[in-house]
Design a protein that fits this description.
Length: 289
């Protein structure tokens, strides 16, 4: 097998396993099962996966399950026990214990007091002012040329597209410490059905090396211009409330007008390396000049 075919083979296997994890969270996802999906021996596959993602398969499964559960808790009224079952936890006790260890509070408390709550409370507070405890600044952003993979459906599941993009870059040795991960969101979840939502998982590389693009990766340009940048700290699952506050409270009081074009997010640290409560994200809303 030549290098090109080997590279494509590993890329396809990584993508296949990532897709299976995201689509079967409510099932048992052990090493042997995922190695079978990758068509490799468990030991060999585990070493490859860990080497590419710097994360074990077990850690990936746990992270994705808890992220999905946090999104359901923050953005739906699904019963807590049902949330746990949908995310692969056999009983409420195990779900509560594992969720508490990662998010710092049990699921019921998280639903009431997670970081999404402060944005929702501020949105409802008629006396709240835009200066609040959330830092928003106006920035002039240059044009960004990204390598992207399309994602259709819930924005909560864009992590699968990022994992596929990361795998695509990794097998080509394009991952560098200064690479920037950026999500581009083209549709409003309040105006479209979930299945019609469209976004892109993107990477901004500093290398000037010419890159031969292959499906599913393409080049996407984010327009230059003025943007409102909200500095957000906390789980990705809570950011819907931050958007509601930014558009529903900050924008009307700011004297600014939103410009046509997608919003985008830049992820400043790595969910594989820090707790969800320590994640830092910049949310960019395009503004008229």
């Amino acid at each position: 097998m030549n290098k090109l075919h080997a590279r494509k083979s590993y890329q396809e296997r990584l993508a296949r396993v990532q897709g299976y994890i995201h689509d079967h969270l409510d099932e048992e996802l052990d090493l042997n099962k995922l190695a079978e999906i990758a068509c490799m021996s468990p030991t060999h596959w585990h070493r490859i996966y860990h080497g590419v993602f710097d994360e074990t398969i077990a850690a990936t499964v746990k992270r994705v399950r808890l992220h999905t559960a946090a999104g359901m808790l923050a953005n739906s009224a699904i019963a807590i026990e049902d949330v746990g079952k949908r995310c692969g936890y056999p009983n409420l006790q195990s779900f509560t214990r594992i969720f508490s260890d990662c998010y710092g509070m049990p699921p019921a408390r998280y639903r009431k007091e997670g970081s999404h709550a402060k944005f929702l409370n501020a949105l409802e507070d008629q006396g709240a002012v835009i200066s609040g405890p959330w830092d928003v600044e106006i920035r002039n952003v240059p044009e960004l040329s990204l390598l992207t993979i399309d994602h259709h459906g819930s924005f909560m599941q864009i992590g699968e597209a990022f994992d596929r993009l990361f795998g695509w870059l990794a097998v080509r040795n394009l991952i560098t410490p200064d690479a920037r991960l950026i999500g581009v969101y083209h549709t409003d979840p309040g105006s479209y059905r979930e299945e019609d939502l469209f976004s892109k998982a993107g990477a901004l590389l500093s290398s000037a090396t010419a890159i031969e693009l292959e499906a599913p990766v393409e080049q996407t340009t984010v327009a230059a211009g003025r943007y409102a940048c909200l500095h957000y700290k906390g789980p990705y699952a809570d950011m819907m409330a931050a958007y509601l506050w930014l558009f529903g409270k900050w924008l009307p009081q700011s004297g600014e007008e939103a410009r046509e074009g997608p919003v985008f997010e830049e992820y400043l640290n790595n969910p594989r390396e820090v707790a969800p409560t320590e994640l830092r994200t910049e949310i960019y809303m395009p503004l008229e000049d």
